[in-house]
Amino acid sequence: MVLALSACTPAGQATRDGHQTPASANTRLGVGYMREGMYEPAMEALEKAVRQDSSYQPAHSAIAVLYERLGEEKQAEKHYRKAYALDPKDSLTLNNYGQFLCRSGRYKEADRMFTTALKDPLYRRPETTLTNAGLCALRQSKQDKAVEYFRKALKVNPKYKPALREMARINFVRKNWLGVRAYLQRLQEVDPLTPEFLWYGVLAEQALGDSDAQSSYALLLRNRYPDSKEAGLLVDWERKQSGR
């Protein structure tokens, strides 16, 4: 699922001379470290922010994400709950807490978080929450509902990679080869295709009878990812196709 990070400081959190509070400064620092994968200094900064101002909502929201990444789920939920209690309308917290709840199998609670986040007309990243809602629907084997969410995400942001990937996967599972082709073409415009999607391309174009496109995907898969699982599948598949 897709976690959203922000170190934005609410208007009321600045000091009178316009400078950041210590808690907001350390939250920004911690989020910056987290984005770089530097979890130890991130934890140090965010713990400091929480100590400096236990009512500073962004600090709890950010440290919850960090605890989740570190696999410390009890601590993650503790801080998600605190962040939610401090600001039950913060869309980033609602998104992140929602995906946490979904991964824990608490689907109704997760859906409530996602729905509340999407009601915010000023939310700048609705495609993230729509995609997470779609992924949560897939966990519940609600594929049609997931497609509805992914399409909404792509309506907001037509180049949003996580939603494009999921739509390519769903069309592949459904053997909707034209759909696979369309989503791979869109995905290729914004991101190099991974072995998984190059393999989808080989099979889709073979089914659609476009040998040139099929060969192009196969060549990219062999050249870019020769040691991948999909490259091995390609070798076996080509052997069977040639009757050897």
What is the structure about, briefly put?
The chain is an all-alpha fold and 244 residues long.
Topology record:
Blueprint: H1 22-35, H2 39-52, H3 57-69, H4 73-86, H5 91-103, H6 107-118, H7 126-139, H8 143-156, H9 161-173, H10 177-188, H11 195-208, H12 211-224, H13 229-242
Account of the 3D structure:
38% of the residues are buried. The radius of gyration is 22 Å and the shape is elongated. Helix content is 72%, strand content 0%. The protein has 13 helices and no strands. It has helices at residues 22-35, 39-52, 57-69, 73-86, 91-103, 107-118, 126-139, 143-156, 161-173, 177-188, 195-208, 211-224, 229-242. The protein has 244 residues and is mostly helical. It has a domain at 161-243: Serine Threonine Protein Phosphatase 5, Tetratricopeptide repeat, CATH 1.25.40.10. Helix 2 (39-52) runs antiparallel to helix 3 (57-69). Residues 7-17 have low confidence and may be disordered.
